[in-house]
Amino acid sequence: MNELLRVAPGGLLPWAPERAGPETLPAAPPPPRVGPSLGFVSLPLRLAWRQLRAEKSRLASAIAGVMFACVLVFMQLGFRAALFDSATALLANMKAELFLIHPLTTASFRPEPFSRVRAYQTLADPEVAQAVPVYLAQATFRNPVDGSRRAVQMIGFDPESGAVQFDGLPPLLDALKRPDTVAFDGLSRPEFGPIAQMFSALPAGEALPVQIGNRRVDIVGLVSIGPSFGADGNAVTNEVNFRRIISERRPTHTDLVALRLTPGADPAAVQARLRALLPADVTVMTHAELVAHERNYWETATPIGFIFAFGSLMGLIVGMVIVYQILFSDISNHLREYATLKAIGYSNFYLARVVMAAALILAGFGFLPGAVVSALMYDAIGAATFLPLGMTMDRGIAVFIMIFTMCGVAGLLAMRKLRAANPADMF
Amino acid sequence: MSAPVVMQDVTYAYGTGDLARPVLRSVSLRIEPGEIVLLTGPSGSGKTTLLTLVGALRAMQQGAASVLGLDLARASESARTGLRSRIGFIFQQHNLLGFLTARQNVAMALELDGGTTEAERLARAGDMLAAVGLAEHTEKWPDKLSGGQRQRVAVARALVGKPGLVLADEPTAALDKQSGQEVVHLLRDLAKSRGAPILLVTHDPRILDVADRIVSMEDGRIVAADQPMTSSAPAS
Fold it and tell me: Once rounded to an integer, what is the mean pLDDT over residues A397-424?
């Protein structure tokens, strides 16, 4: 009652005289804003960090989500790269400038034979020094321990030509001249039997007898090529031994011809001349084109490339949903506070920067442990599968960009919720 | 310099077409520098809508309005956002950011002003908290403060930017009598000493004593301006 009576008569209030005093002038408007400065980024970033930090368990689950996506994408891209690297390892090892293959050959594990005469025709060009036919076929290899059979990729060519070079091959050149000898790929999958250990256990100079196809052959040495998705193991032999093992092959037809040019020759010019010279039943490719052709098969003609791309995408989508959920619930839980900030002059754009900063903080914090875990998993899985898995800088940067984009998109989606923070509804 | 708030024949309706429901009908209101105006009236009388229009939280529909020199009818959204940073808002609830300390919450109101450094902002926030009697509590989290203390932090946040106008919506609704009294008296004293006018919407008869003038609204019209207590005072 007292308070009411004090205001009562005609608006004459105890402090009414203050209305006229000089100090009753409205406060001066604030000084004009300084243009965009460091605060443009750092202040929203700090606000976002403080908000994330306030809820530790939610922050941990968000980081775990990003990390999960990160590892998934790293694994998928790692497998994808390992597939392409291993699938092209055989061709990448060939040391020749130009190659002939049948136009219908889609991949080296399933070549289309063409006439060996084409190899000799290329020698008509003065700059072609050497034409080496390479025979490719798969044969069954019997595991010397348990007798099980498995397909092995046979590579037959004149080892002395030097047109195809594998690690470990040079010391075996003489041994491979003997009948029924092969050099076995020591990196082949263990299902072929412990060939490398068995061979190493032999006294120097002795051969390990095994069965390939229907023939008993001697392993005279080990080379390093590595398994691919097309073949679990490899065996190198000379042309004659190749035909002994793959007896149904006609010697008149080869699968690949490696052309070595005279020193200083321009491969592109020779390639153009050979194209004009040779009939349409062979294609002339440079080494890079041959590797790209093989790679293209795995990328496009099989679902394998797609599967890994799809797997990466799923990882990114799952990660995006997790980040979106975290950001969205952060905004929802703080809707009144966001609306308050808008009411006291914070623009939508400022709050959008806060949300974006939160997304990017999560990206950074999830990526770092994710990359470390992925690198460890590469080592473990590479040791188990004999695939050439490894962390590369390029892939690290690519995944970093993907994770950032993922979190950025999640941030953009979550930002829509900011519109619901309407300061007019605050009153 | 004209008055901080001049509203002339402002009409506002929610909805469109046949569903349009007018909530303000030709409202005119003028607030002089340093004046403390209480806006009362029953629920649905349009006082909150009027407050949000003055606070540039809604776009104008009809009429003329000038707040702190800005013509609201023609102002863009970004101009209105800029105006809001020169107004101190106090809400029914404190709406403090739970993940910031009291001092950081108050400093948030200064961060939009690019001309200040972090140290200046925190110093001013600390001074302002001392002025509302919370010098001991500057580093506390909002959930460690009582309701009255939180609302005092909100008062500090509203006033720290030296606003040209303070808008308050039921600032005592969530407080007990004593805390409510403390908060509004604090608000009045601080605003008076800074010369900032206050427009305060309230149902609370316990705080009518702070007003220079009481404006009463009913059905979207001002029924008693400049004549406080004639029709608007509760019968108690």
Answer: 87
